[in-house]
Write a structure and sequence with these properties.
single chain, alpha/beta, Rossmann fold, six-stranded mixed β-sheet, six-stranded parallel β-sheet, 17 strands, disordered N terminus
């Protein structure tokens, strides 16, 4: 629901007007406003009609919303207020906006633009219901500012947003002045009862750096077993962790008890490389390694305008993944047998690299599934992907929540932040945030200074 409005406490009943960006973010948005009424301008339905075809997330959301409205309305007219089906919900209608307005957004901002017609629909509802607080809800910041300039209340869609994203769960804790005896014991034993060493209470799988002067132990706390185990810094598939955070990530990626992993970090921290190397290390345990990423089209255009077949259209978007695979293969220069094996894995599609839209609707059984650039997903799509997991499947999300290319998503509302915040206490889940860039000193300069 949009955030609660503190102004004008006398108007307790509200009407929320949703624009297209909200529906494409969450097709079930109309059911998330509790007892308040929800209205959709007719222009939103027209825009959704243009989005309903295709395999992208927004196409799925558009189709789902259209079906939802059809099921809600049944034999009733949606130009009249219709009760929503969810218990204790308000009513719903489509605004046609045929009444003259005291303030006309098209006269102020220009004619012919759908956003301005949506503003007029909300303004007409405000004039029609002076006893209610009318609020435009949009993911479009500019549209919200235009609304406020016309004395129309406007808010972001808050459902699924994470508060205090700078305090988002990082997956690790550094503890100082830990007993040297315990540090040595942890290094020598495969598992240690966590209750015996005085670790702070945790309700999640978690990584610890235990320190005492020059002695250090890097450990993983398994919340289900209440044990800790030492974290190895050994190389996997000839990719050696360059810092302890990378070692933590590899540990989570290799742990068969952890079925869901997220790795968050800036560009150059090694997220995708570590995930891919870990998948190859465990290739015999899975039927297929599937590596994917959402395609964010240039200038908000669909990739259909690009020349060529489906593969040639999508290959440029998948190039960073191929670069990582090529880097791994280069570590085996001189080892012709392993180089040929990697080529064979690609040719037989044991390793499959394809856009996320290509796997919609599939059940993922015995798959090591890597989703790169997960910050460009909505919370709903992250949920949909995880719900596709079959038996013996491992899912890995990687991304940088501060580098988002999708319109109307930000560090608080993207699917990766949503996953980290909501899955952090689950026994099948582990997360680590990578801070140190390892691509090159020059790349680190960009992250640190620019």
């Amino acid at each position: 629901m949009a955030k609660k409005d503190k102004a004008d406490p006398g108007l307790t009943k509200k009407i929320f007007v949703l624009d297209t960006s909200v529906i494409l973010y969450d097709h079930d948005a109309i059911n998330n406003f509790h007892e308040h009424d929800v209205a959709i301008p007719i222009q939103v339905l027209e825009e959704l009609d243009n989005f309903k075809s295709g395999n992208d997330t927004r196409n799925f959301e558009a189709r789902s919303f259209i079906r939802l409205i059809d099921e809600t309305a049944k034999q009733k007219l949606i130009s009249d207020w219709t009760p929503l089906k969810k218990p204790n919900s308000g009513k719903f209608k489509v605004i046609l906006n045929e009444n003259p307005l005291a303030v006309n957004a098209e006269e102020v901002y220009g004619k012919g633009k759908t956003d301005h017609k949506i503003l007029n629909a909300a303004l007409s509802l405000k004039a029609e219901h002076p006893d209610k607080r009318v609020v435009l809800v949009s993911k479009d910041i500019c549209l919200r500012l235009k609304a406020k300039a016309l004395s129309l209340n406007a808010e972001d869609y808050e459902t699924g947003k994470i508060k205090n994203v700078d305090e988002l769960y990082a997956g690790k804790t550094e503890l100082h002045n830990f007993s040297t005896e315990i540090i040595e014991a942890v290094k020598q034993q495969p598992f240690t009862d966590a209750t015996d060493i005085g670790l702070p209470a945790k309700s999640a799988n978690h990584f610890y750096i235990l320190k005492n002067k020059r002695k250090t132990a890097n450990v993983f706390y398994n919340n289900s077993l209440k044990t800790i185990s030492a974290v190895s810094t050994d190389a996997i598939f000839k990719i050696k962790p360059k810092n302890i955070e990378q070692a933590f990530a590899i540990h989570a990626l290799l742990d068969p008890q952890i079925k869901l992993v997220s790795i968050q970090g800036n560009a150059g921290t090694g997220k995708t490389l570590l995930a891919l190397a870990s998948a190859l290390e465990q290739r015999k345990n899975f039927r297929q390694i599937y590596v994917t990423r959402p395609i964010v089209s240039l200038s908000n255009k669909d990739i259909g305008f690009l020349p060529g077949d489906a593969k040639s259209k999508t290959d440029p978007f998948m190039a960073p993944i191929w670069d990582n695979l090529r880097f791994i293969k280069e570590q085996f220069i001189g080892d012709h047998k392993m180089s040929e094996k990697i080529d064979e894995l690609i040719n037989t599609e044991k390793i499959a690299i394809a856009p996320l839209a290509f796997i919609r609707g599939r059940t993922l059984t015995k798959i090591f599934f890597i989703i790169d650039e997960a910050q460009n997903l909505t919370p709903h799509e992250v949920k949909t992907i995880i719900s596709r997991a079959g038996e013996h499947t491992k899912i890995v999300f990687t991304g940088d929540i501060y580098q988002i290319d999708t319109p109307y998503l930000d560090s608080e509302s993207n699917g990766l932040s949503y996953l980290i915040e909501n899955a952090k206490n689950h026994p099948l889940y582990a997360h680590i945030t990578l801070h140190k860039g390892e691509r090159s000193e020059l790349a680190n300069l960009a992250n640190e200074l620019l």
